[in-house]
Amino acid sequence: MAADDRDEALPALEGDAGGQGALLRRAHAALVAAGAPLGAAQLVPAVFGVAGDLTERSPWHGLLARLLGGMDIFQAGPDGTWALREWSADDLALDAVEFAVLDVETTGLSPSRNRIIEIGALIVQGDATRGTFAELVNPGRKIPDFIARFTGIASEMVVRAPKAEKVLPDLVDFLGRRPVVGHNVSFDLNFLGYEAQRLGGNLFFPTEGIDTIVLARRFLPGVRRVKLDVLASRLGVQAHERHRALGDAQTTADILRLLLARAKAEGCRTLADLRAALAEFAGKAPPARGMVGEARPTGSMYLNPAWRRDFPTQPGVYLMRDELGKVIYVGKAKCLRDRLASYYNHPLGYTRKMDGLLQNVQAIETRVLGSELEALLVESRLIKELQPRYNVQLRNYEQYPFIKIDVKADFPRVFATREVRADGGRYFGPFSSRRAVDATIEVIQKLFPIRTCTRALPPAAKPSDPCLRYHMGRCAAPCKGVASREAYRAMIDEVVDFLARSRGDMMDALRNKMWEAAARDDFERAAALRDVIRHADSVLLGQKLITGAIEANNLLLLYPSAQPAHAEMYLVRHGRLVEQRCVACDPAAIAADFEDLMRRAIWLGPPPTKVGKAEVDQINIIARWVHSHSREHGRAFFTLPANLDDADAVAALRTAVVTRTIAIARGEADDALAVATDAEAPENATEQPAEVTARLGADDAHAPE
To answer: If DSSP codes are grouped into helix, strand and coil, which group holds residue 287?
Structure first.
């Protein structure tokens, strides 16, 4: 297996058992929200979060079929659609419905702190009992004395009982997708759901069922006390073994039969009628067809549906405003209509970022732009200008940290800093968080025995006893006065090479350590090393920051325009976007624009002596975008000649640019054109170090992600 393939497979070391369960829950939620069967073209985006070619030739259809086909909660239709198997019960007469009556006994009242010790269930249909399920469960802990007295289940009774991971799959098979009934059923289902999540999330239990407490309050007018034994006494039902799971389930089943008879007398003929009656009693809207619990509210509750008609299909940015007209969120999109439409179906409370956002949106402004790159840059600028409270990352661009190596010192240290000064030090970053910086420094300190202390060193100070790091082989101990400056300097050069990614063997060494940790079952360490490798790839390689980007990213970019028969032309000089032009499909006009941009490039001269804080973010965005898109067809990346006064080189570039611009504007760009000139997709645009040097001024202290 290749190293890159192993990198992608490594999440299994941490245990990805919950992945399939999450996909199944998404499929279930999509079907519940629709209330009707859905085809693969509708389910694939909801389940896997992908778009694009979703025809029957797409491999996503097969993946969806394998995922849903292995679970009996889903049912494939002859027309290729998928439905919830339980939907067939909604239209059945109540006497024909098979109900799963459930009860669990636990070590306490909190699902997060306590465990299940017994499960009892019955399948009832009309007056008949179709099956029973009764299992003691080993909770893996001592049963509290008061619980033992209350239930009659002592610790010695469960010591040889199976644990939850063995019992719960059998229970899922027993319940099937029958409507679940219980006395205070939410208590039972909360415990089962929490236990299923604890075991990895591959087991599916409904979030809500039919509660005999609610049934009694609806169909027994005047009832006050609804404890199980009190309710049984009122209805003349024999209370079976109390506080044992199967006994309470049997009592609940007898109560259910009598309450269903009262429901039928009041006109409830089907399960759908019963659900509607209970919803009306609770003051809620009737649940969606086949719904087990309440649907999670979505953004459509708050967003004006009329807005959707005016959303454009072009790339651009959108600004969400509150009732005072203040911008509270800025976003970007390749297609504004698709992106904004997704907010209408977005579950509320699903992510912390979204909490409260959609509830406060009173207007949405869209701004159509020429391309995705322009949208990225405009989004960054607007977030800095407007400081929307729901944008977090780019809003706090002044707080991102760097790694510094004080190379002027005799024995340099490697440490984190938010200050970037013209002091001759070597700076790497910015990183997205202090945690990422600390993790990277930790790896460097484990790979290289560099000093971490700030004590004075010989000959400026007397030699001192080295710390524990020296005895662990983690420091060369210059404090002792015997470390070689030359050997230490060579080691610092290796650290710089590692951070600058100019030596692939350093990354290979890091990957080897990751697999060594995995081989000795140190999965936590292996996962930490994997995260550092991925972060180094995305931050240090992808962002071509400052020195590397300033030197490498002198480019002319061509990109398809949102305006028909046009192309977007970008001049990137010293890593910055100098100008963007929308050019028509006309050779003479393209050549004129090219000449004009070349004059601007010459006028700019050498790189500036320092970089402003906000500029760092623009350089970062452009460099990442170049790295991500430089090999795609349909666009072009031309490196500017090193000498812009070289008439022959500029003329050759002009010819290539005109030809390629016409092809892009006409939509004729293909893979052959993508490699038309050696100037396109420059290698140095993806291989330069992410480094800041002393060229920065002392007042440019911070930089964004």
So the answer is: coil
Regarding whether 328 and 214 lie in a shared domain, the answer is no
Query: Within this chain, do residues 568 and 669 fall inside the same structural domain, yes or no?
Result: yes
Beta-carbon contacts of 333 under 8 Å, excluding residues fewer than 6 positions away, are 315, 316, 317, 318, 339, 340, 375
Cis amide prior to 466 (ω within 30 degrees): no
List 38's β-bridge partners, or say none: 82
* CATH code for the domain of 60: 1.10.10
Whole-number Å distance between alpha carbons of 696 and 691: 11
In a domain, 473, yes or no: yes
**335 and 431 both lie in a single domain:** no
User: In this structure, what CATH number is given to the domain that contains residue 182?
Assistant: 3.30.420.10
Tallying the residues shown for the chain, one arrives at 705
Domain boundary among 85, 111, 141: 85
For strands 402-405 and 414-417, give the pairing. antiparallel
With respect to residue 77, please indicate whether it lies within any of the assigned structural domains. yes
Q: In the prediction, which pLDDT does 249 show?
A: 95
Q: Residue type for 660, please? A: R
| Beta-bridge partner residues of 426 | 405
Helix (H) or strand (E) holding 100: strand 99-106
Q: Does the annotation count 243 as an active-site position?
A: yes
The residue among 1 and 641 whose pLDDT is bigger is 641
> What pLDDT digit, counting tens, does each position of 85-144 carry?
766 666 677 887 889 999 999 998 888 788 999 999 999 998 899 899 999 999 988 898
89: left (phi over 0), alpha (psi -120 to 50) or beta: alpha
Amino acid occupying residue 308: R
Angle formed by the axes of helices 434-447 and 504-519, to 10°?
A: 90
Return d(Cα 276, Cα 269) in angstroms, integer.
11
Determine which helix (DSSP H) or strand (DSSP E) holds 129, and give its type and residue range: strand 128-136
Sheet (strand 426-428) strand order: 414-417, 402-405, 426-428, 691-692
- The Cβ of residue 469 has, within 10 Å, a number of other Cβ atoms equal to 17
Residues 99 and 246 in one domain: yes
- Give yes or no: residues 385 and 236 share one domain: no
Closest CA to 566 of 543, 590, 584: 584
Residue 698 in domain = no
Residues 499 and 370 grouped into a single domain = no
The residue type found at 245 is A
Which CATH number goes with the domain that contains 375?
3.40.1440.10
Helix (H, G, I), strand (E, B) or coil at 388: coil
The conformation of residue 38, written as its DSSP 8-state character, comes to B
Distances from the Cα of 261 to the Cαs of 58, 76, 211, 287, 552, in angstroms? Answer: 50, 34, 16, 22, 80
| Dihedral class, residue 15 (left if φ above 0, else alpha if ψ from -120 to 50, else beta) | left
323 with 419, same domain: the answer is: no
**In 152-243, which ranges are continuous DSSP H helix?**
155-158, 164-175, 185-198, 212-219, 228-235
Has residue 602 got a pLDDT over 60? yes
Give the range of the structural domain holding residue 556, as residue numbers without chain letter.
547-689
For the stretch 471-492, pLDDT in tens is: 777 788 888 888 888 899 998 8
- Residue ending a domain, choose from 505, 537, 569: 537
The CA angle 693-442-433, to the nearest 5 degrees, is: 65
Q: Please say whether the beta carbons of 129 and 93 come within 8 A.
A: no
Whether 12 is in a domain gets the answer no
Count of structural domains within the chain? 5
How do the residues of the chain divide into helix, strand and coil, expressed in percent and rounded to 5?
Answer: 45, 15, 40
Residue 498 amino acid letter: F
Residues 6+ positions from 515 with CB-CB distance below 8 Å: 6, 526
Which of 61, 183, 240, 243 is labelled catalytic?
243
Contacts of residue 602, defined as CB under 8 A and 6 or more positions apart, other chains included, come to 644, 645
Query: In 455-575, at which residue ranges do the beta strands (DSSP E only) sit?
Result: 555-560, 566-573
Same structural domain, 115 and 60: no
Question: Taking the alpha carbons of 59, 60, 65, 68 in that order, is the dihedral positive or negative?
Answer: positive
DSSP for 334-379 reads SSHHHHHHHHHTPBTTSSGGGTTHHHH--EEEEEE-S-HHHHHHHH
DSSP 301: G
